[in-house]
Fold:
Amino acid sequence: MDSAQSDVDNVLKVASALREFNTLRQEGIVSEQEFLEMKAKLLAVGKDELGRSPSGDTLETLVEATNEMDSSRASRISFADDGGGDLVSNQKELDEANDDALDNTIAVVQGTWQEIKDALGDGVAETAGVILFKHIFRIAPQALALFSFKDCAGGNVCDELFENKTLRKHAAKVVGTVDTAVGMLKKLDKLIPVLVNLGKKHVGYGVEPAHYDVVGEALLATLSDALGDGYTTEVHEAWAAVYDIVKTTMIGKNYDYMDATYAI
Structure:
């Protein structure tokens, strides 16, 4: 198995296990404390292994985490008052609910993105990109220093900056990447290696973990601008969830030297 496929397998295993345990929390089957403890274990596995083949010890940890969930599920799921109920069918319902929730999130993200593309037409990449970068520099003006066009307006964040051809080209490229990622949400096995490699490249650009939060906030603000009243709570939560996966995957284990922790 090559390293990219290993990355995919690890991310999918951890994400699936975490999603399942979160469902058990939402159903009241496990406590908040149990969920947080299991989340810490799963994230430790994901962070340790993202970007390289799993070791025997790590696989054992993942198996233990999965077994613990199975044990909790078997001992805690409440059955019907008459003694009926089937653990297998109950679990099947939970799995189907998880799949439905993921499908709905993807549908919301892809549907609203298509609305924006239809509204802005052929110029969607550049138009949305400029709005995105206006929000980025509004939130973190110091981030300008990371870009090749940092001196085009005397190092200032101003109208002149956003008319710069280099900025507009780069902004369009970023939105093009968003478009590609949104289109691949139902093909995670292909999307995750792309994000892993993109994250590694961004380390060389001087990007730090905190910058991902800035971009995430700016992206959500851009979507709000574009969708107006259509930017509902459901839309916000769907995009936030998807971006969190993108952020976590791109950060990977690239910043271990900073002893940073990242939340899914």
Summary: Residues 104-264 form a domain with the Globin-like fold (CATH 1.10.490.10). Residues 14 and 46 are 6 Å apart (CA to CA). The chain has two domains: 1-78, 104-264. The first helix runs from residue 3 to 26.
